[in-house]
Amino acid sequence: MSAAGYLAAVGSAALNGSWPAIIKSRRVVEARLPPLLLNVSFIFGFAVVAVVVVAFEGYLHWTNWGLLSGAILTVASGLTLGVAIPNAGVAIPSGIAAACYLVTAYVWSAYILDQGMRSVALSLVGILVVICGLALVVSASLVKKAPPDQAEATLLPDDDDKDERLVPDEANLPLGLVASAVVGVLGGSNMAPEEYARDDAQGIHYVPSFALSALLWSSLAALAAHRAGAPAALASGRAAVCPAMCAGAIYGSSICCYVAAVVALDYSVASTLSQCSMLVTGAWGILLYDELGGDARRLALYVTGASVVVAGAGVVSYYGTTE
Questions:
Q1: Which of 41, 169, 174, 198 has the fewest CB atoms within 10 Å, i.e. the most exposed one?
Q2: How far is CA 39 from CA 68, 89, 245, in A?
Q3: Sign (positive/negative) of CA torsion 36, 38, 42, 47?
Q4: Are 39 and 217 in contact (CB under 8 A)?
């Protein structure tokens, strides 16, 4: 196992865990770019990375299976950008999505693609651990914030100047949590079609087909919405385009790093390290946006739950595969 492989895995976690914080930034929120156009901008950034991959490889290894992965990503990223982050923030959704991702990917690997596993019993124990971690993460969002007169129970001081548009609306929190779960299921499925692609279109060669297909589907969705009379973007919406493209490029780079990590290491190590991205996203949400309100109870539940999910990921990644 090479140092470069570990670096790629850690890079994947850091990159994949950081792009949601850009989408929640004041500049993007205040621009009020319609979600479908925000999604196109995000996926365009991913497509730019794909073009770089093609330039580096010198040849486009196209596969039509990328169309299916691209369609799944279009729905998943649309839900993330338009529903999950606006209504639930980035910390809690990242934990829910990661847990659902792991369970879904396990089902695909073990029972649909029939790729085999080291131990059925221990892999199921890992899934159970992931579900327990998921329950803790969700409970962190359900604990009521400490009232103002219990300042000693909080870790961060109140900020009266905080922009309310950056704070998730608790009334819509359930919608954001459900969307996060759906995103996790879709995320655990969007690379499954790669297994049906020919050998020379798998791995890093699959990324261009995947990304360019997603750009096609997201553009068609935005065009269809426009034709159906969806509200046009305000002039201020342009301010969100570049940040969204940067977020998409970071996401695309994280996928490339993950693929490189799987090649250099083994699947179990690469997958476990990459799932640490939820800890990175959580850190951004807690430290930068104070999503847990500085409440020590909510923070303890979240950190414990996220750590349990990562531990479960290690068990599932090792015993749920033969690699």
A1: 198
A2: 17, 17, 9
A3: positive
A4: no
Q: What does R_g of the chain's alpha carbons equal in angstroms?
A: 19
Q: Which of 310, 322, 319, 273 is nearest to 102 (CA)?
A: 310
Instruction: Identify which of 102, 94, 291 has the alpha carbon closest to the alpha carbon of residue 177.
Output: 94
Contact between residue 79 and residue 281 where contact means Cβ atoms under 8 Å apart: no
φ, ψ of residue 73 in degrees (nearest 5):
-65, -40
The C-alpha angle with vertex 96 and arms to 92 and 99, in degrees rounded to 5, equals 140
Task: Calculate the dihedral angle through the C-alpha atoms of 231, 168, 17, 34, rounding to the nearest 10 degrees.
Answer: 0
Q: What is the pLDDT along the chain (323 residues), one digit of tens a residue?
A: 578 888 888 899 999 999 999 999 999 999 989 999 999 999 999 999 999 999 998 889 999 999 999 999 999 999 999 999 999 899 889 889 988 988 888 888 878 877 677 888 888 898 899 899 889 988 887 776 665 554 444 444 444 444 444 556 667 889 999 999 999 999 989 888 988 999 999 889 999 999 999 999 999 999 999 888 877 666 778 899 999 999 999 999 999 998 888 877 766 677 777 878 888 998 899 888 888 877 888 889 999 998 998 888 888 878 876 66
Phi, psi of 154 (to 5 degrees): -105, 155
